[in-house]
Specification:
By secondary structure, the chain is mostly helical. It is built from four helices and no strands. The radius of gyration is 15 Å and the shape is globular. The N and C termini lie far apart (about 45 Å).
Length: about 90
């Protein structure tokens, strides 16, 4: 049976994770994409945060990403105007 979805409804790559009991829910750092992790860290730290600051925050959350990858993701997000826009 086909799934009914509202037209224009946006689903994140992580939206498919759902379990009936919270104890079985995977940890956030296990299911989050690299792009989403950086996207969430930037508003929390401020748009002027360095790549090193973003990396430190993500490490505290159990997410390992090198600074070069963080820089790439920031560029992609800036091009798509998803975060840190005036």
């Amino acid at each position: 049976m086909a799934e009914n979805r509202t037209r224009g409804e946006h689903h994140s790559p992580e939206s498919h994770w759902r379990v009936d009991t919270p104890q079985e829910q995977p940890a956030h750092e296990e299911i989050i994409s690299i792009t989403r992790a950086v996207e969430e860290a930037l508003p929390a730290l401020g748009c002027e945060a360095s790549d090193e600051d973003v990396q430190f925050r993500l490490r505290q959350e159990g997410i390992e990403i090198d600074r070069e990858r963080i820089a790439q993701v920031r560029e992609e997000l800036a091009r798509s105007k998803q975060v840190c826009q005036d």
